[in-house]
Specification:
The complex is a heterodimer of chains A (294) and B (459).
Chain A: H1 2-48, H2 68-75, H3 82-113, H4 119-129, H5 138-147, H6 154-163, H7 170-177, H8 181-189, H9 194-202, H10 207-223, H11 226-232, H12 241-247, H13 254-293
Helix pairs in contact in A: 1-13, 2-13, 3-6, 3-7, 3-10, 8-9, 10-13
Chain B: H1 2-23, H2 26-30, H3 37-41, H4 45-72, E1 82-86, E2 91-95, H5 100-136, H6 144-151, H7 156-182, H8 204-212, H9 214-250, H10 257-269, H11 272-282, H12 288-295, H13 309-338, H14 341-349, H15 354-382, H16 385-391, H17 410-419, H18 424-448, H19 450-453, H20 455-458
Helix pairs in contact in B: 1-5, 4-5, 5-7, 7-18, 8-9, 9-13, 9-15, 10-13, 11-16, 15-18, 17-18
Classes of the chains: A mainly alpha (294), B mainly alpha (459).
């Protein structure tokens, strides 16, 4: 510890001036980059308050500001039923969240804590299945749902989003692996069943990973675009936010609805952004968990 | 250790089934014909009835429809839907024919059902022989209540895995098999059930895609090359630049680290479909960026960001950097701080500048630690539907391409073939190819990831 401070001091005195210049350059670079990165978001917000009509203007700052774009989203619902899409997405998200969380936590706990004879082979199969994107077989999923007469329905969406979710068990398994096994053993000696250990010991100790799982599965329906468009086809009433907003930007609609699209996008982006910022720590841990420890 | 135990147990289990045939008494032997009989007669009534109910419902299903689907699977149906003159009503009526799609789908379902019933059958025989052995030893076989209790203790894994297993079989495994099978049929626009039949064509689709059909194979080769070019550029540009951004923010003496990080993280937090759609509209020929550039006098004509093939390719790579760099920054920040400080200090003493330090210390260390992440990103980019579809829609379209545009990746081509062209057989063929590519790469990543290799030492 002492050594480190000493060498730091040496560097500071030796390279003082150069470090200052280097830092100044870095501040300039960071500021420019930050402006580039933040510009589209600022522009989105500005456009959502723009009073002038039309898709694009020849200037960046709107000349007049208004709340109308937001109000119209909730009042003019004949063609684009924004409140309905919002509710659809919310309902689908809630059910997906419940089902996915149960399945992911159950699967990861099983693979982490319980030992049974087909554990290894099952885990390998799950890993391989989880390796390729689900939407590759979306046609097949669509036909299966159609033969069950579930196509174009919200239930179909819940099934699609939560069905294979257990394959994403690795992150929470990594978390359960870190909970000391001695706790389980002590509880077993006290006569607790495995189910009691799961509910009363492991889960209460796993708040971070439960939060992460709940939030990621809740967010999936808000940002998915592919499955909805394959499953819903032209059933406008059951569209979710993402697909609905996309319709506002088609060639026929973009002129009339661009500012409303911006308003709608801002409204969805706010809660999602807050949730994401809140859980970014877990998010990073989830993705790098294996590699950092390795 | 564990593996040896497992195989031993498996052997014992198997011999249980054959011993039942050899050494079992009459009741046990009868339960080879009537599932669950042994259990019912020996006091495990509920369990036995469940076995029996499974057997009955399986037989009913096979007689009702299963046999029809299974027997038509080799041809995928013979009767075409046709019009029949109805004498009584004096009108033409549609007489429904076979539906190839349903035959294929439920053919697969039936095969799954047969597999499941065989497993249950073996299990039921074992159970009844087990009962016999327990009775012989003078004990009472476990009651239904005991079994239910076990589901929350000794067999808790079965309880927890049932729902996920059903979900995965229904939405992952069955669609996968169905998709693979579709690649060997001629299911396209001209063979749409229920009006028309489609049938098996063997490797015809693969042949067309690889060499027979010159336009199709030309498109395939072009798109395959572009997919890889895109994946390489998208992955490495984000990786390197994201890491440099993280280093800049992490650098000692830079203040407001949290502030800088939050600004960049904001852009990942906003849903991609919002930012990407916005970008695609901003950069259109008559979009705000072009208007602005012309007003400032930087260009006299609109720059064709999206409508020119080469420009569009560069454009998607650059916008993807906007999407991906903050992401890499977020992920690598923590890992970068793990690099031992001493390494940098001794490099400095040896007179190495920041570039040399980056090339000789940071990069090798990061490549070593994050290879699995990098491969996952690469696979993710091969399948990066969102960026391409929302930015350019795969366009600009070109007559040289078979139902695709110049920035189309294999996945977006697959999507277009499915949704716009209903060319399911070709789409499935492409899906198989994508699957082979991604699975190979993913397996490499999986085998290299440390967390897997060290699973047991970790606990």
């Amino acid at each position: 510890m002492i050594d480190k401070n000493k060498s730091n001091k040496n560097i500071k005195t030796g390279y003082g001036m150069r470090t200052k210049i280097a830092n100044a350059i870095i501040y300039v670079i960071l500021t420019v980059l930050a402006l580039i990165w933040i510009f589209p978001l600022v522009w989105l917000i500005l456009q959502s308050f723009r009073a002038e009509k039309g898709a694009y203007t020849t200037y960046i700052l709107p000349k007049n500001y208004t709340f109308n774009n937001y109000i119209k989203l909730f009042t003019e619902t004949d063609l684009f039923n924004y409140p309905r899409w919002f509710m659809n997405t919310l309902v689908v998200a809630i059910f997906t969240c419940i089902l996915s969380t149960l399945m992911i936590l159950g699967t990861s706990y099983t693979f982490s804590r319980l030992r049974f004879k087909s554990r290894k082979p099952m885990m390998n199969v799950a890993l391989i299945l989880g390796m390729f994107p689900g939407f590759m077989s979306m046609t097949a999923v669509y036909h299966i749902l159609k033969s069950l007469q579930l196509d174009q329905s919200l239930i179909a969406l819940v099934i699609v989003y939560s069905g294979g979710s257990a394959l994403g068990f690795m992150i929470s398994k990594g978390f359960f692996d870190t909970i000391p096994k001695a706790l389980d053993e002590a509880a077993t000696i006290d006569g607790a069943t495995k189910s009691q250990i799961f509910w009363k010991i492991t889960l209460p100790l796993s708040k971070p990973i439960i939060t992460y799982t709940v939030l990621t599965s809740f967010l999936a329906p808000w940002v998915d675009f592919i499955f909805v468009s394959v499953i819903m086809k032209d059933n406008y009433q059951n569209y979710t936010i993402a697909l609905g907003l996309y319709q506002m930007l088609t060639r026929e609609n973009v002129n009339a609805y661009f500012t409303q699209f911006c308003a709608g996008a801002v409204l969805v982006a706010i809660p999602i952004t807050i949730l994401f910022i809140y859980m970014q720590k877990y998010y990073v841990e989830g993705i790098t968990g294996g590699s950092v420890k390795g | 250790m564990e593996d040896i135990n497992v195989s031993k147990e498996l052997k014992n289990d198997k011999s249980l089934f054959f011993n039942a045939l050899k050494k079992g008494n009459l009741i046990t032997k009868l339960s080879f014909i009537i599932m669950g009989l042994g259990c019912i007669l020996r006091g495990q009534i509920v369990k036995g009835l469940i076995f029996l109910a499974l057997q009955v419902s399986f037989i009913v299903y096979i007689l009702n429809s299963g046999w029809y689907y299974l027997s038509n699977l080799p041809t995928l149906g013979k009767e075409v839907q046709r019009q029949v003159w109805n004498e009584e009503l004096q009108i033409y009526e549609y007489k429904p024919g076979d539906n190839s799609m349903l035959i294929l789908l439920f053919g697969v379902v039936t095969i799954f059902a047969i597999g499941a019933i065989i497993l249950m059958y073996v299990k039921s025989v074992k159970e009844s022989y087990n009962c016999e052995l327990i009775r012989k030893a003078g004990n009472r076989p476990p009651t239904f209540k005991d079994d239910v209790k076990n589901l929350f203790d000794k067999n808790f894994h079965k309880t927890l895995l049932t729902l996920p297993a059903i979900g995965i079989i229904l939405t992952v495994i069955m669609p996968l098999i169905f998709m693979i099978l579709m690649a060997f049929t001629n299911f396209d626009k001209t063979h749409q059930p229920p009006g028309k039949l489609f049938t098996w064509v063997g490797f015809e689709n693969f042949k067309n895609l690889f060499f027979s059909n010159s336009k199709m194979s030309g498109t395939f080769v072009k798109i395959l090359i572009w997919t890889f070019v895109w994946a390489v550029f998208a992955t490495f540009s984000n990786y390197l630049l994201g890491m440099i951004l993280a280093l800049l923010i992490n650098k000692k003496g830079i203040k407001f680290k949290g502030f800088w990080r939050t600004i960049f993280v904001l852009t990942i937090a906003v849903p991609q479909f919002v930012t990407l759609l916005l970008m695609s509209r901003m950069f259109q020929d008559v979009g705000p960026i072009n208007i602005l550039l012309q007003k400032l006098g930087l260009t006299s004509q609109a720059i064709k960001f999206i409508t020119d093939g080469t420009n569009a390719k560069i454009f998607v790579i650059i916008v993807n950097m906007w999407v991906g760099i903050p992401y890499t920054m977020l992920i690598t920040s923590g890992i970068l701080m793990n690099i031992p400080e001493d390494l940098y200090e001794s490099a400095k003493i040896d007179g190495a500048g920041p570039v040399t330090a980056f090339m000789k210390i940071t990069l090798p260390y990061m490549l070593f630690v994050t290879t699995p992440y990098l491969i996952t990103q690469f696979v993710g980019n091969i399948n990066n539907f969102n960026v391409i579809y929302l930015l350019t829609g795969g366009g600009p379209n070109s007559l040289n391409y078979f139902q695709a545009g110049e920035t189309d990746l294999l996945v977006t081509w697959l999507y277009k073939l499915t949704v716009n062209e209903q060319n399911y057989s070709l789409a499935s063929t492409i899906a198989i190819i994508i699957f082979v590519i991604s699975a190979t790469l993913s397996l490499i990543a999986y085998n290299r990831s440390a967390s897997v290799q060290k699973e047991d030492t970790f606990q």
